[in-house]
Amino acid sequence: MADEPSLTRWSFQDFKLFYDAKFGRKKGAESQNGETTADNSHSNGSSSSASSVSSGNGHVKDSSELAIYEQYRNQGGSYVQTNGTLSNGVSDRPQKSLLPAFDSAETRALAEGLCRDIIRGSPDVKWESIKGLENAKRLLKEAVVMPIKYPKYFTGLLSPWKGILLFGPPGTGKTMLAKAVATECKTTFFNISASSVVSKWRGDSEKLVRVLFELARHHAPSTIFLDEIDAIISQRGEARSEHEASRRLKTELLIQMDGLMRTDELVFVLAATNLPWELDAAMLRRLEKRILVPLPEPEARRSMFEELLPSPTGEEELPYDVLVDRTEGYSGSDIRLLCKEAAMQPLRRIMTLLEDKQEIVPDNELPKVGPITTVDIDIALRNTRPSAHLHAHRYDKFNADYGSQVLQ
């Protein structure tokens, strides 16, 4: 038999026939009729589709052929038909490939780079793991979760919101909320930052944005999470004060967002920012739901302290009321740092004893870390300061001007 051509140059039918002949798996109809095998039909080493699939530079022109082979390879070679059904019990219709059929190898290469930003599997963040933020949770469920679960109700004027903005002080849980949405809806989650769509090559940034939305439509229902969106699409100024490449990138993102709002595809853009007042007005219009993620309230702070600093069994309960009263203006990230500082105090006492020893103490002889005391918590409160309380009034003003509210 002649040299075997590259498998990526074959159509699915050609590859299936070659695989049957190569490993002795023939279709029942062929074996009964005594027809010639695929080995003889391809003995001349040529294929009608091979010449049209590959170009002179070795790139594949028709990516659907390559996608079929990738699907065959990922499923362990189970595309062998028996009476019109695959041997693994699945119908003979190929599953959705990782990449859609792009028109050029350059676009396909850009898409492969963006595929690295897809979170494989579920982010595994539940609503219950996010303390407080009941208003933000309710708005997100109304805007994203319910339209995916019950699409019958969200048609016509009630079509789902395609753009959602999460804004608020840093460390309040905006990224956690986005991952909770992806976990609840079981959508394909694109975790995109500025480095994902900005390129040094002229014209590639706009193409990356366009390919990103094509991938999201291909994997729908999907969620595009644009973290720190103010770094991508801040307010557009005059031509002299803004680089041409940045302006083209912003324009392409606005065009893709506008096209997304005019379709019924379940593709949601979830953006997060700490500086909402720096966003362009055209992007604010496309981000229809603008949800404030505020600093945690007293009830939420108490839940965090009880989870991060549980009271020792049989010991006096830690002063949670004091912690709640003295952490006004702390973000969720600040509270975690405070609890970490309090937990370090008993360990520091042991480290002081170990530093006096000349030799390293074996693991089985190390002393146990004692419980956290009220004095440790007081020291931690004096050593930890809030990081996001100074601009709280600006977020409240922006929320009053542009934010979405739940009116009872």
Automatic annotation (TrEMBL):
Pfam families: AAA, AAA_lid_3. Residues 26-59 are annotated as: Disordered. One of its GO terms (cellular component) is spindle pole. Signal peptide: none annotated. It is found in: Cytoplasm, Cytoskeleton, Spindle pole. SMART domains: AAA (SM00382). The keyword Iron does not apply. Its main location: cytoplasm. Residues 160-297 form the AAA+ ATPase domain. It comes from the Eukaryota. Keywords: ATP-binding, Cytoplasm, Cytoskeleton, Isomerase, Microtubule, Nucleotide-binding. CDD domains: RecA-like_VPS4-like. Residues 40-58 have a biased composition (Low complexity). Residues 30-39 have a biased composition (Polar residues). GO terms for molecular function: ATP binding; ATP hydrolysis activity; isomerase activity. PANTHER family: AAA DOMAIN-CONTAINING (PTHR23074), KATANIN P60 ATPASE-CONTAINING SUBUNIT A-LIKE 2 (PTHR23074:SF78). This is AAA+ ATPase domain-containing protein. It comes from Erythroxylum novogranatense.
